[in-house]
């Protein structure tokens, strides 16, 4: 696991200093290794490397080339590259006699214990599905174990392709090796020797004075990026298959049946300056159970992208999917329209400041002369989804034919743009065609007085200064076709659990844990969600929340409710999904319930893509003209492909159109109603515990999807 995204500045600085300091170590002869038949030597190195990452392989070879074995030969000569299994090509049919692609929260806690959680029936039952990247990494390691088990050497060093050898590597490895081998016969007294690891149990024994390796009989080591595996150890691991869960976690669970050691200290280190394209299945699970208590904003960290990108082709050739793909890479992409907004077209024509840097399937752009655009923009790139497109005199390196039948569109696109191959699946959106767009007048989209709060920074949020569009409408979008009532519940009847579930989880910025005990309903009375002070393993407060059992795509979503007015608490009525994160909010801040906070989060990508950048969204405070905690009112979200309206008692108080300032969420969302305690006093105010328990009351929840406009 590469922890770049989670390392703080001090950790990163210390790591970088160690990386630089390794060049001051002139002891480059590693007596443990030998390319000859020395029986007491380590004679093979395997580097797990993806075919699409040749730069990593070249860099890893350079790292190994710095060192020589006991006979003076370069370690790179002992090295074999293993072509790693690529998550992009996993078809979902995993041989479960080799790997079961899930694990339990209890297994995670057995390796990485948390003082607030115990291993019990609930954590054993909490199953976590591995990500495709975790599956591919695990299968790659298992295949290398097979090479060791059936190979001609007694042991091998197994490396992932993003590691470095720390200062004094040669001396420290020799100290461990001497303790664990018989110099006369070469017999190995270990199955598995960790050289790269992160200690999870601070009480683990160490012996820095004599540099003796540490026996490991209990779980507590993270990372499997650098380790020595004996032939006997490889056979034992293969005998214990199937593995289940990430490979570094599963290895820990085998310690009681293997001879496992770690070097006295870490002598191989995974690079923290290597951008990780992996995603980790355990993080959302830990957030839900309350073990992650910090919500860290993620910033879209794309390399500087060549721009503008202009793409065209016939309908049905994958243009909408291409627009989504470019957005996932970090482009601010305008797509599927008969024309650009007037000022954007003028800016593109005359090389002025533009709001967008990618244009896909735009009628008014397709009619331009590409040669003229190429001359105006020396870095502009052109993509066609039709094989017969003529690009004229534009150099071949500046245009790409990306036809619908192309086997690996990410490979072609990332090579063309000179960027890292994405770890996420390529989108499969159905082409929308060139929709007729109508620019909206540059007037306020809020009826009452409003205040724009600080927003996230991402390629999918136009800066306020760039929000020259004020949004636009589409006249011929076919994604909303008919009216259909899905849910219509009032508190006169019991909450139908076929339609709703009572949540029992939380999220990092919520200081309360949701519990079904905090939902109350009496005959003839409104339903109630309560927040109270109640000690749990992970939180000091509990609260109530309901969520729809199904997800919806467009429609009208509403509730009759009376919010809480306790400072520090937030009442929420909102639509939400993760992977990719998209959200449409109504929230009431307990410190001032005369205002309604409306918010939109937008991240692009197909369902399952972990695009969740930022945690502020694009919030706006709207004056209500009354106190939402004083009485019941009807609050509704109208959500369509090109517009969102927020209604109160039937009156539209606020609306957003496409790209004002974000695209409109376009993936299925679930409806939620909750009461939660915000970690941010700046947002919600300081909690007055004397006012607890607090309550939100609601008399109805309705969903009409999709709805006529």
Automatic annotation (TrEMBL):
GO terms for molecular function: licheninase activity. Keywords: Glycosidase, Hydrolase. It comes from the Bacteria. The active site is at 583 (nucleophile), 587 (proton donor). It catalyses: Hydrolysis of (1->4)-beta-D-glucosidic linkages in beta-D-glucans containing (1->3)- and (1->4)-bonds. The keyword Hydrolase applies. The keyword Hydrolase applies. Its EC number is 3.2.1.73. One of its GO terms (biological process) is carbohydrate metabolic process. Residues 419-698 form the GH16 domain. Belongs to the glycosyl hydrolase 16 family. This is Beta-glucanase. It comes from Mycolicibacterium arabiense. The lineage of its organism: Bacteria, Bacillati, Actinomycetota, Actinomycetes, Mycobacteriales.
């Amino acid at each position: 696991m590469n922890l770049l995204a989670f390392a703080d500045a001090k950790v990163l600085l210390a790591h970088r200093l160690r990386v630089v300091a390794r060049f001051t170590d002139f002891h480059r002869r590693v007596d443990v290794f030998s390319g000859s038949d020395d029986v007491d030597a380590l004679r093979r190195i395997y580097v797990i490397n993806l075919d699409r990452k040749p730069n990593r392989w070249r860099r890893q070879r350079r790292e190994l080339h710095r060192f020589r074995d006991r006979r003076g030969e370069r370690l790179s000569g002992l090295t074999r590259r293993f072509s790693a299994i690529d998550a992009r090509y996993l078809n979902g049919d995993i041989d479960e006699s080799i790997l079961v692609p899930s694990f339990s929260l209890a297994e995670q806690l057995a390796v990485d214990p948390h003082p607030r959680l115990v291993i019990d029936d609930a954590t054993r039952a909490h199953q976590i599905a591995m990500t495709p990247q975790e599956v591919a990494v695990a299968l790659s390691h298992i295949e290398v174990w097979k090479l060791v088990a059936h190979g001609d050497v007694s042991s091998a060093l197994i490396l992932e392709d993003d590691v470095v050898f720390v200062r004094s590597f040669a001396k420290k490895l020799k100290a461990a090796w001497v303790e664990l081998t018989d110099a006369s016969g070469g017999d190995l007294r270990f199955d598995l020797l960790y050289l790269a690891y992160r200690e999870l149990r601070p009480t683990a024994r160490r012996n820095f004075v004599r540099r003796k390796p540490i026996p490991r009989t209990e779980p507590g080591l993270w990372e499997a990026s650098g380790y020595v595996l004996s032939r006997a150890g490889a056979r034992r691991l293969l005998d214990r298959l199937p593995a289940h869960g990430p490979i570094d976690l599963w290895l820990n669970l085998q310690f009681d049946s293997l001879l496992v050691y770690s070097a006295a200290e870490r002598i191989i280190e995974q690079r923290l300056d290597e951008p990780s394209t992996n995603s980790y299945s355990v993080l959302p699970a830990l957030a839900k159970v309350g073990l992650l208590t910090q919500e860290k904003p993620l910033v879209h960290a794309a390399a500087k992208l060549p721009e503008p990108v202009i793409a065209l082709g016939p309908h049905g050739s994958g243009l909408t999917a291409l627009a989504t793909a470019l957005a996932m890479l970090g482009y601010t992409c305008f797509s599927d329209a008969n024309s650009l907004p007037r000022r954007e077209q003028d800016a593109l024509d005359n090389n002025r400041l533009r709001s967008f840097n990618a244009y896909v399937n735009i009628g008014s752009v397709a009619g331009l002369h590409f040669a003229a655009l190429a001359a105006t923009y020396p870095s502009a790139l052109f993509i066609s989804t039709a094989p017969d497109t003529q690009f004229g005199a534009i150099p071949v390196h500046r245009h790409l034919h990306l036809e619908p039948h192309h086997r690996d569109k990410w490979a072609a696109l990332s090579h063309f743009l000179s960027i890292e191959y994405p770890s996420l699946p390529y989108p499969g959106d159905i082409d929308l065609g060139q929709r007729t767009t109508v620019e909206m007048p540059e007037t306020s989209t809020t009826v009452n007085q409003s205040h724009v709060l600080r927003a996230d920074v991402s390629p999918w949020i136009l800066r306020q200064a760039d929000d020259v569009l004020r949004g636009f409408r589409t006249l011929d979008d076919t994604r909303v076709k008919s009216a259909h009532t899905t849910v219509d519940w009032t508190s006169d009847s019991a909450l139908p659990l076929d339609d709703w579930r009572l949540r029992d989880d939380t999220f990092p910025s919520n200081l309360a844990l949701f519990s079904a005990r905090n939902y109350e309903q009496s005959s003839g009375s409104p339903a109630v969600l309560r927040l109270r002070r109640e000690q749990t393993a992970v939180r000091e407060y509990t609260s109530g929340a309901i969520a729809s059992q199904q997800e919806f795509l467009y429609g009208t979503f509403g509730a009759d409710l009376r919010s809480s007015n306790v400072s520090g608490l937030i009442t929420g009525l909102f639509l939400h999904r993760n992977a990719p994160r998209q959200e449409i909010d109504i929230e009431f801040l307990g410190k001032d319930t005369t205002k309604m906070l409306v918010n939109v989060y937008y991240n692009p990508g197909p369902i399952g893509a972990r695009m969740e950048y930022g945690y502020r969204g694009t919030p706006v405070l709207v004056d209500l003209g009354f106190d939402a905690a004083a009485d019941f009112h009807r609050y509704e979200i109208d959500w369509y492909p090109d517009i969102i309206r927020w209604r109160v008692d039937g009156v539209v108080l606020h609306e957003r159109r496409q790209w004002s300032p974000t695209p409109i969420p376009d993936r299925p969302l679930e409806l939620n109603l909750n009461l939660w305690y915000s970690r941010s006093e700046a947002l919600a105010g300081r909690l007055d515990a004397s006012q607890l328990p607090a309550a939100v009351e609601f008399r109805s929840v309705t969903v009409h999807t999709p709805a006529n406009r």
